[in-house]
Amino acid sequence: xxxxxxxxxxxxxxxxxxxxxxxxxxxxxxxxxxxxxxxxxxxxxxxxxxxxxxxxxxxxxxxxxxxxxxxxxxxxxxxxxxxxxxxxxxxxxxxxxxxxxxxxxxxxxxxxxxxxxxxxxxxxxxxxxxxxxxxxxxxxxxxxxxxxxxxxxxxxxxxxxxxxxxxxxxxxxxxxxxxxxxxxxxxxxxxxxxxxxxxxxxxxxxxxxxxxxxxxxxxxxxxxxxxxxxxxxxxxxxxxxxxxxxxxxxxxxxxxxxxxxxxxxxxxxxxxxxxxxxxxxxxxxxxxxxxxxxxxxxxxxxxxxxxxxxxxxxxxxxxxxxxxxxxxxxxxxxxxxxxxxxxxxxxxxxxxxxxxxxxxxxxxxxxxxxxxxxxxxxxxxxxxxxxxx
Length: 389
Fold this sequence. Notes:
By secondary structure, the protein is mostly helical. 70% of the residues lie in helices and 0% in strands.
């Protein structure tokens, strides 16, 4: 006990840097040495004494030494979590001794630095991730999003999108996640498009109406791509999101069909008509097409577009979209076939539809040209032979 007494007296006069070094040594000795029960109790008492040291250097040294250890004294760890954020942070980030209730309380009351520390934990249960998504600052949500070891429920991801969907860094981190639900991914793309449109209009580069139209069509294109790349189980939630947000439009439905994405089109029809998907699929794929007009009417799609939908479905049956499987590109031949059906139509009734189809045709032609050039450029160069050969 004399050594302990001398140590305590030394603490009263030693510089803060030396006390911090001593705190680290004591903590590491506790963790690594085979101490007897009496010595363990004394070491814990000394560490609790150091938790009250007036210098943050000392308390931080103790926190750094004990933070990641599963055999650290719980009372000392809990005392450190009540300290200043810069001292408590490594404990919250690393300590396996903290239970979910400790972490939830800290997310609610600990401030941004503590939230960031918790969000970076290697093991983070979904309930804690949900608390950060609901209450955490933007930086904490960004760290959580980038923490691929964390268990983040889809509802928590959606909440972060609602709160910080305008934050470019968080959007980018969310879009980089492989587990992002299709509906959430589409929601983020919409927010990006709206931000860009607002910027363009604010700079007077485009009129507001034109910017909105370009933004809407860009979102529709991205939506079809997202649907094509997502599991079929995510189509229904995606469609419900689109319907709830007013994005399940005639233009999107037509783009889905003209891109060869029959599943997205059928899911959309089922949502708009209120009919079961299986029944809708039967009506759409019926080679006689007897029930299709009634289905389109029940889905409240404009009568002027019915010919376009019928022709697109007929074109798919005829193999026009055979190359579209697994892609989200508009099919130029299908569009051109439909345009021919509107050549003799009353311009006033179908003007907006024809204009849309012509934009689709232009987009499809540009995509084909781009794909052709990319494939041509990727081909290995031809072997050059000399004249002598």
